[in-house]
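Weekend entry, working from home. Most of the wet-lab plans are on hold until the incubator is repaired, so I used the time to fold the two sequences that have been sitting in the queue since the last round of cloning. Logging both here for the record. First:
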Amino acid sequence: MLAPMLCVYKAGIGSSLIKFTKKGGTVIATSDLFRKNEDNAYLDHPSPLHSLLPDGWESMTRGARMPLGEGSIIFLNPNATSEDWKEALEKTLQSDF
């Protein structure tokens, strides 16, 4: 699944994304995924997705694959270029086949 822009946190979308990943799916998204609510204000607590990630995940190399269940999440910089997205997608496709 690709999430190429900031997505506002909604509990239903967040839990579906977690289920998808835990069952073996790969998510490529920007690191600001689910950081704001529908009022465009930053959440005052981590979203359930972020709370599942290992401590220090934000300092990991952007584009690093972080396991979550049977799947993984790849976070890119919010200012990632189209080449960054292309590279992440190519690496994902290569590793999944």
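Second, folded right after the first finished:
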Amino acid sequence: MDVKLLGTFKSTLSKTNSQRFHIASVTLSVIQFGYTHPIKRKKMTYKPWLLLTCLACFYNAEVHANSSTTNTQLKQKVSQAITKLEQTKRKSWSYQVSRYENEEGDITSSIEQFMPFDKDKQQWALIRINGESPTNKQSRKFAEKKQAQAQEREKGSNYSVKLREIIQQDSLQLTSESNSHMQMSFNVFLEKLGKDSVGKLQGSLTYNKELAFIENITIVNNDEFSPMFSANITDLTLTLTFININNTVLPHRQDMEMKGTFAYFTEIDEVSTDSYSNYQYKGDQ
């Protein structure tokens, strides 16, 4: 199973009829650049080291400066954990996805159901949209959208990013450890975010020692960067959370927060969340 992280800034170049610029993400989030108006430049308020401190406190982690765990062992553990995730057959499970997006104050939400049927059957169903039952027209548009996305995946044009590409394993460092968890930091490079992002993205992950899987991954920026011409990202936080069900690693939650500007006058202020629930194993299809 690939974690489709960022369909991100690549697709921002296409302007829609409603003058909104679209940044797609994994199943994860949809970033849309909204209205145009003069804005005041905001200073970066996000402090990535504060996040790392909070995560360490959450697990009551104790920092071990002289830990016996070597970088080679860290790399091996993370590599095996990624392999476990890659081996998950998502099409063997049914589940629900609750999506929430806030694009410059424009809030939308939906609940979607996935059933692992054959390709000739409808796998996705729209259960709720903006707190209400969908109309026939909304359900039809939803089905068409999912079908188009499936076709893009088959063509290999969905800009999926694998965890092995996100986590630079040679840079893994143990930052804290408890009896149950390890906290690690690592460097991040995503080619689709452009060369200007090099050295400006930092990652951290939490590793469950007993079940040998990655519980969450957080990526933040430590400086402003420009993923494409006229776009400037000042604040970026991406968090992926996973669960282990019967020794199978599955997505649990994906969160993204992004702030910046596009073409100097268009404000980017996006919060999006995808929450996965009601997993049921249906067997190999």
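Plan for Monday: verify the second prediction. The chain has four helices and twelve strands.
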